[in-house]
Design a protein that fits this description.
Layout (H helix, E strand, L loop, with lengths): L1 H11 L5 E6 L2 H12 L5 E6 L2 H12 L3 E6 L8 H11 L3 E5 L1 E2 L4 E2 L3 H10 L3 E5 L18 E3 L12 E6 L1 H8 L12 H7 L15 H17 L1 H21 L16 E5 L6 H12 L14 E5 L7 H19 L10
Parallel strand pairs: 2-3, 2-4, 4-7, 7-8
Antiparallel strand pairs: 1-9, 5-6, 8-9, 10-11
Helix pairs in contact: 1-8, 9-11, 10-11
Length: about 350
C-alpha cells in the first residue's frame, strides 16, 4: 500500500500526504470528492464538456449542494472567459472539470489558469483525470489542483475497481472545518486516510480491500514508472496523431474540430452518412475480436470511439484498427472510402 501511494504521487506529480486509493470504480473517486467537500447548500459549479460534468452535478445534488453548470458546445472545450464569468456569477465553493471527457473526446486545456482562478475565489478545484492520466500532462501541485482522481483500468491498464485519489491540504482543511459529518462512512477521507497510513497515525481497520486489486495496481504503476511518465505521454500523443491522420486519409472527420483539444487516449470520430455504427462494431468484434465503441451520453449514435489506452497505444495496433475500421465500413455499408490510408 505504501509503494502504491508513492507511485500515485509520481503519476499525479504531487507531494500530498493524503494520497490513497478507494475501493470502487472511477465513479467512487467522483463521489468521494463530492461527499467529502460538500455540505447542504454549498454552491458548486460544474464544467461540462460531455457526460461527466453532468454526472458530477447529479452526485453533488444528492449530497445537498446548490449545483450550477457552465457548458461548452458539444465537441468543444470550455473557454477561460466562460469559466471566469460563471465564477463571477455563482461564486462557487467547489469547481469540477474533467481534464478529458471520454464521451466527447474533449481535452480541457489551461487547468493551471483555472487553478489560479479558484485560489482568487477561495474555491476548491476538483479534476477528473480518469481517462486522461498517462496520455496528457497533469501536474497536480503546480497547477493548484485540490482533489484529483483517476481510473486504474484506463491508461494504467490495471484491474478495474480501485481508484487512486489525492487531496491537498486546502481540501483537508475544508473537510476538517465541516459543520456536519461526511454523509458516507465508506468514502470518508479522514477514515480512509488513516486506513492508508496518510496522516502519521496508527492504521485503522476501515474495510476489506481486495489484495488482488492492490497487487494488480502496484504492477501497473511499476510498468509506468519503468517506462517513464513523459515517455508514456509522448507515446500516446504520437499514436493518436497517427490514428487521426489515418482517419483523415479515409475521408472521415474527428468529432473535436480543434486538434489541441483532442484527447489522445479516447479518439472520437464522426460516423459518416449512411453508416450504421452498430453493424460496423459488430463486424469488427465478430471477425477480429476488436471493439470499436459507439457514442456515450451526448454523442450516442453520432460517433465511433477508439481507445488508445496503455498497451493499445502502439503504431501496430493503430494501423490494425484503421485497416479493420475501413473494412468494416465498406462491408457493412457499401461505402468506398478514400484509398490514401497508407501513413
Amino acid at each position: 500500500m505504501d509503494e502504491i501511494k508513492e507511485g500515485i504521487k509520481y503519476l499525479f506529480q504531487t507531494q500530498n500526504p493524503a494520497t490513497m486509493c478507494i475501493s470502487g470504480s472511477g465513479h467512487a473517486g467522483m463521489e468521494a470528492a463530492m461527499c467529502n467537500l460538500l455540505e447542504d447548500g454549498d454552491v458548486v459549479l460544474m464544467g461540462v464538456t460531455g457526460l461527466w460534468g453532468n454526472r458530477a452535478g447529479d452526485i453533488a445534488q444528492r449530497y445537498g449542494a446548490d449545483v450550477h453548470y457552465v457548458r461548452a458546445r458539444c465537441g468543444y472545450a470550455l473557454s477561460f472567459e466562460d469559466i471566469r464569468e460563471a465564477f463571477q456569477t455563482y461564486n462557487p465553493k467547489v469547481f469540477f472539470i474533467a481534464q478529458g471527457d471520454s464521451s466527447t473526446g474533449v481535452l480541457q486545456s489551461f487547468i493551471s489558469d483555472i487553478g489560479d482562478l479558484c485560489r482568487r475565489f477561495n474555491c476548491l478545484l476538483v479534476v477528473d483525470i480518469v481517462a486522461s492520466l498517462g496520455s496528457a500532462e497533469f501536474l497536480m501541485d503546480e497547477w493548484k489542483v485540490d482533489v484529483a482522481y483517476t481510473g486504474s483500468q484506463k491508461v494504467l491498464c490495471g484491474p478495474a475497481g480501485i481508484t487512486p485519489i489525492s487531496f491537498n491540504q486546502r481540501a483537508l482543511n475544508k473537510i476538517k472545518a465541516r459543520q456536519s459529518k461526511v454523509k458516507s462512512y465508506y468514502f470518508d477521507i479522514t477514515l480512509l486516510g488513516q486506513f492508508w497510513g496518510c496522516f502519521g497515525t496508527s492504521r485503522i481497520y476501515h474495510h476489506t480491500v481486495s489484495s488482488t486489486l492492490l497487487y494488480g495496481l502496484r504492477e501497473a504503476i511499476a510498468i509506468v514508472c519503468q517506462q517513464g511518465l513523459k515517455n508514456m505521454i509522448r507515446r500516446h500523443i504520437e499514436c493518436s496523431y497517427r490514428l487521426q491522420k489515418g482517419i483523415e486519409n479515409m475521408g472521415m472527420e474527428m468529432f473535436v474540430p480543434e486538434p489541441n483539444h483532442r484527447m489522445s487516449s479516447i479518439n472520437v470520430i464522426k460516423i459518416p452518412n449512411g453508416v450504421d455504427w452498430r453493424k460496423v462494431s459488430q463486424y469488427a468484434m465478430n471477425k477480429y475480436f476488436l471493439e470499436i465503441a459507439g457514442g456515450l451520453g451526448p454523442t450516442v449514435d453520432q460517433v465511433f470511439r477508439i481507445g488508445l489506452l496503455g498497451e493499445n497505444a502502439t503504431e501496430e495496433k493503430v494501423d490494425l484498427v484503421l485497416t479493420i475500421l475501413r473494412e468494416a465500413i465498406q462491408n457493412t455499408s457499401g461505402i468506398t472510402l478514400n484509398e490514401r490510408s497508407k501513413i
